Amino acid sequence: MPDADRDVQHLLARELGIHWIVSSILIGRDIRTPDDARRYLYPSLHDLHNPFLMKDMLPGVDRLIAAVYKKEKVVVYGDYDADGITSVAVLVRFLREIQADVSYYIPDRMEEGYGLNQKAIDKIKDSGAALIITVDCGISDRDEVLYASSMGLDTVILDHHEVSGPLPKAVAAINPKRPDDSFPMKHLAAVGIVFNFLIALRGSLRKNGFWHNKPYPNLKEYLDLVALGTIGDICPMIDENRIFCRVGLELLTEGKRAGIRALKEISGLESSTVDSEKASFSLIPRINAAGRVGLPEEAVELLLSDSVVETRELALKLENYNRKRRALEKAILDDIIDNIENTTDSRNRTAFVLASDKWHPGVIGIVASKIADRYDRPAILISLKDGVGKGSGRSIANFNIFQGLKECEDCLISYGGHRYAAGISILEEDIEKFSDLLDEIVRENLQQSDSVSATVIEAQCHLNDITHELLSQMELLAPFGSRNPEPVLCVRNVNFLSPSIVGKNHLRMRVSESGVSRNTIWFSQGHFIHDLNDSSLDIAFTPQINYWNGSSDIQLKMKDIAISGN
User: Fold this and answer.
1) Distance between CA 53 and CA 50 in Å, rounded?
2) Helix, strand, or coil here: 83?
3) CB under 8 Å to 396, separation ≥6 — which residues?
4) In terms of C-beta density within 10 A (0-12 exposed, 13-18 middle, 19 or more buried), how is residue 527 classed?
5) How is the beta sheet containing 352-356 ordered, strand by strand?
6) Of the residues 13, 240, 322, 550, which has the fewest C-beta atoms closer than 10 A?
7) Looking at residues 443-454, what average pLDDT do you find?
8) Cβ(303)–Cβ(85) below 8 Å
9) pTM strictly above 0.70
C-alpha cells in the first residue's frame, strides 16, 4: 500500500473507530474522507438528491396533480419484471392512498411484448382515462406516445433505460439518463425514479395544502418494494440505490406488508434477516416468475393487498410459477451448454447469439445471465416465432451491451436496455449476420485479458484478524451488489485439512495459519479437490457467520485459491 493510502487508512480507522481492514476496503472503493465514509457506512434518507433536478419532473408532477384535482382517470403502464412490477405497485399504492382514480396495465409478454402499443392505448382510451404514466418503459416509444396524444391521452414517462434518438413528445419524459439531465445519480432502477417522483409529488401536494394539516403518506414505508425492484434490476449498489436498499432490506426483514410476509413464508424466510442475496435468490425470482410464465398482475396484487388470506393465495401462485420457470430454464440451459461444449464455432465466440423456436421467451433472460456468468462472455438468446425473434441479452463487466447493439442496429427491428441487459427484436434471417457482427464488436472492444475473470483482493491479512468484531463492522459495507461487491480478503500460506465434497459439489475444508484455524466452503467447486496436494495455499475469501442447528461460527466463503509461491 502506498504511504499516502496508509495515511488515509489510519485517518479513517481513527476518525470512525473502524478496523484497519474495513478502512482498507473503503480506500479500495475510492472512499477516502471521513465524511464520505460516514455517508457510505451509515446511509441516510437525508442524503437523497433533490428530485426536481431531474428534467421534466415539474411538468410531470403538475400534470398528475391536475389529474388528481380534476378526478381524471390515471393508468399506470408498467413492465412485467420485478422492477416494472414494483414500480407499478409503489405508484398505484400511493395514488390510491390519496384517493386518485387510478388503475394499471401491464402488457402480455407473449402477445404484446415490452413497452407501449397501440392496441393497449386503445383499451386505455376506452376505459375513460385521460393520463398514462409509464414506468420502466416509454423512453423509446415515440410513435406510441404520438398515437396516444392523437387519441386525447397525455403521457408522463418514468423510465431508466438508455436514451437513443429523439425523446417522445410526452408531457414529461423523466429519465436521469437523458443527455440534458442534471440529476447526479444516473443508475437508478425505474422504481427508484418512481420513488423520486413521489417525493416531488408529495412535496408539491403539501405546498398546495392537500392534506390540510392531516397526516401525509410516509414514503419510507414504500422502500421495501423499492429495494426489491432495485436489486432485481441489478442496479449499482451506490448512492441513492444504496440508501434505498439499506432501509428497504430492514423493512423486508420486518415483513409488515402482508404481501411481503406471505412471500417470505412461501420462500422459507419468515424468520430470516433479508439481505441482498436472499432478496435476489428467494423473493425476486418469485415476483419475476409471474411475469415470465404467469400473470404479472398477480404479483402486483400480492404487493398491493392487505388481506392475509389473499396474499397467501397469491404467494402460492407465484411459487407454482417459479417451479415452472425453473424447469423451463433448466431445459434451455442444458440445451445451450451442450451446444457450446460440443460446437467448435460456439466455443471460439467472444459473444454468444443463440436462437430456437422451442425456448419460452419468458425465461431466456435468466438463462442468458447464467451463460454470461458461466463463460464470462456476453450472451443473447432469441426465442423464435413465425420468422421473428424476441431476444434477451446479458453482458459482462467490461462490455456495454446496449452500445454494442447500437452498432448492430441495421440488423435489428428494435432494441433497448442498458449497460448490462438488453432486449431485441430481429428477423430470423438476420440472426447469423447479427451474431457475426456482434462477435466482431465484442472482440474489438475486449482485450484478451478482459474476458478472463480476475479475483480482486481488497485486503491481505492473517486468520487471527478474522474476528466477530470485524464481521460486525463489515456488515456496514452491505448491501452488496453491482459496484459494491462482497469484500474479498486474502491470507497466504495456509495449511488445509480434511477436504471433502458436500451437497451439490461444494468443497469444504479447514484451513490453519499461525495456530488459528477456520472452516471454509467453496460453492459449486468440488472438482478442485483433485488439484489439492501437500503444498500450502493462498486463499481469497469473504468471511461470514455460518448459522447451523442453532449455533454460529465464522466461516470463510471461498472465492479463489492458489498454490503458495505460484
Assistant:
1) 6
2) helix
3) 372, 376, 377, 378, 451
4) exposed
5) 352-356, 379-385, 388-394, 421-427, 414-417
6) 550
7) 66
8) yes
9) yes
